[in-house]
Structures are given as structure tokens and as C-alpha cells.
Amino acid sequence: MINLNDLMQGASRVGIAGHIRPDGDSVGASLGLYNYLKKVYPDKEISIFLEHPSSNFDFLKGFQDIACLKDDEPYTESFDLFFALDLGDMERLGKAASLFKGAKVTVCVDHHISNTGFAMHDYIEPEASSTAELVFTLFDESKLDRDIAECIYAGIIHDTGVFRFSNTGIRTLSIVQKLIATGIDFPWIIQHTFYEKTYIQNLLLGRALIESMKFMDGLCIASVVNRRMMNFYGAKAEDLDGIVNQLILTKGVECAVFLHETDPLCFKVSLRSNSDRIDVARIAKTFNGGGHKRAAGFTMSGTYHDILNNISLQIERQIEGLDTENNGINGKS
Q: Of 35, 40, 51, 286, which has the fewest CB atoms closer than 10 Å, so is most exposed?
């Protein structure tokens, strides 16, 4: 546990960043902390950095303040204090990693089991439902308001699958009770950020489901969206949100694999598990990725079938009780 007030005392310029390709937890946790610090420490200069967050979250206060770091722009800002949220590896900060490294004091708040600590102050709790939950525990609850609550609630629902996943604990629900008490429109937040899809998203989801295939005697399911398909629909990466979560709902399936081609023969791989015998975080770690036991991912070069064969081998090793803690090939987080 860290003391937020102690950290803030000697800081004038404070930075906050989440991981590249930010999901709901990364966005919610980052904006929740941003709004809290802006409210409680109005004399401090607070900056927030996220890589092109989904417009689904543009209703959250502070969304318009998010700075998206670009590859062709140099950044020489210096911070007294910098928070890295929801990532197990500093490199997953992307362009913000240089800002983190240059800060006088660094803090990491995270719930990835693969995180061994890389900041001066680490608050890592793998059992937590989400980083948003951990961020909330740093707050003086008397300062909680509706704007802050909306952000934390959005983060929690996305990493718990709207409270469906086993990482939903007693503390999680206790926090949610306090968030709802501020008057947030919690059914709308769930509908708007978790379930609601654009027409293009539905087309891609339908295509991915139609072209999916089962393997390992029906134990697993996989699908891929390549660059040609993305170009055909005029789609963006955020239009693929939710596909892997739908795949894992297939009856009789214990593991889902979804591949998205980001560059020629380079795929972002998303993994989901609903079985105690398949730990997808261990599979992702094998290929230099990371995540949680039930949700993880990595990036890997190769053909769709080559990558799927590599993943199949790791799933088989786990089912047979063999060690999967080894080094992968051509993988990166």
C-alpha cells in the first residue's frame, strides 16, 4: 500500500499514464486518479497520457484532457511524480515510458500477476479485480464525487466482465456500492461502454464468429481478423473490442484465441479462459506478453496457423501438467 498524500506533498508536476492500447480498466483507473488529484490538489499541475482511448469513454470527465503521445514528436517534459497504471512492464507505457523514466519519483499501481515491480513505489495486488479498484483504495472517500465514481466504475466493470469473473471480490462489491451511492447512472455506463456496438463492430463480430474454428477436440476456439478485412470495413483496432469475450461464451469451450493482424504477418493475440486448468497469463508470458489467469495477450510474428500451433502446444502442456514457464519465440508484449 502507498500513501497518496505523502507522495503528493513534494510534487508540483504530476503525470499519469496507462498501457498502450488502453482498455476500460486502464482508461477508468487513469481518469479516476486524474480527476481525484485535480480535485484534492488544485495547486498541482496534473497531466494524463493515454494512447488513443476508445470514444466510448468520452463522457468521462477529463477525457478531453488526455494527451496522445505521437512517435514523430519529441517529449522533454520532466515530472516530480509519475504514475504508471495497469501494466506489468514499463515498456507497455509506449511513448510515455520516457516520461516515466525521467520522473523524480515513480509509482506503479497494478493487478497483473506478471508484474514484479519496476517503480520506486509499487502497489501490486494480483488478487484485485482491477487497477481501478486499487486506485480507489488510495482515495480519501470523503472526497469522492460522481465524476470520479464514474471513472472507477467503468474500470471495474470492464475488468470483471460486469462482475461475471471470479476476480470480483467482496471489496470490489463494497467499493461499487459506494460508487453507486454518488448517483452515477450505472446501468447506462454498462450499456454504453460494455455492450453497445457500432454497426461496423457488429459486422466484424459476425464475420469473426462465422469464420471461427474449434480445435483441440472442441476444447478451444479461435478466429482471426486480417488487414484485408479491416480495410474492407474501414475499421479501426477499437472496433474489435469484445470479439474474444464473445468467443469464450461458446458452449463447451474452455479457451478462446483471437488474432488481429496489425502489420503484415504480425498479430495481436488476445486470450481468454473460463477453466481453472488453462492459465492464459502463463501462455502469454511464454511469448513475452502478460495479463491475468483468465485474460491475457501478446504480439507475435508469423502466419495465423503457425501462431495457433504454438498456442495449442502451450495449452496442451498445461492440460498435461507440464511447465509452461519458458521463453517464447518472436513474441512481444
A: 40
Low-confidence ranges of the chain (pLDDT < 70): 70-76, 322-333
**Cα separation, 226 vs 64, whole angstroms:** 31
- Encode pLDDT of 208-225 as tens digits: 999 999 999 999 999 999
Q: How far apart are CA 247 and CA 243, in angstroms?
A: 6
Same domain, 281 and 304: yes
> Same structural domain for residues 174 and 203?
no
CATH number reported for the structural domain that contains residue 15 in this entry: 3.90.1640.10
Rg (alpha carbons) of the chain, rounded to whole number: 20
Return the H-helix or E-strand segment holding 255: strand 255-263
Q: What's the CA dihedral at 218, 219, 225, 229 to 10 degrees?
A: 10
208: enclosing H helix or E strand: helix 199-210
pLDDT tens-digit readout, 101-125: 999 999 999 998 888 899 999 999 9
Looking at 143, 160, 195, which one is the last position of a domain?
A: 195
Residues 216 and 328 in one domain: yes
* Beta bridge partners of residue 291, listed in sequence order: 296
Domain count, the chain: 2
Angle at 261 between CA 311 and CA 325, to 5 degrees: 25
Phi, psi of 72 (to 5 degrees): -95, 10
Beta strands 220-225 and 255-263: pairing type? parallel
The CA distance from 90 to 125, in Å, is 17
End-to-end CA separation in angstroms for the chain = 27
| Percent share of the chain, pLDDT over 70 | 94
Q: Say if residue 162 is in the same domain as residue 293.
A: no
- pLDDT at residue 327 in the model: 42
Considering the domain architecture, whether residues 13 and 131 belong to the same structural domain is answered as yes
3-state secondary structure of 198: coil
Q: Same domain, yes or no, for 168 and 207?
A: no
What pLDDT score does 214 carry?
97
Residue 64 is part of which domain span?
4-195
Q: How many residues appear in the chain?
A: 333
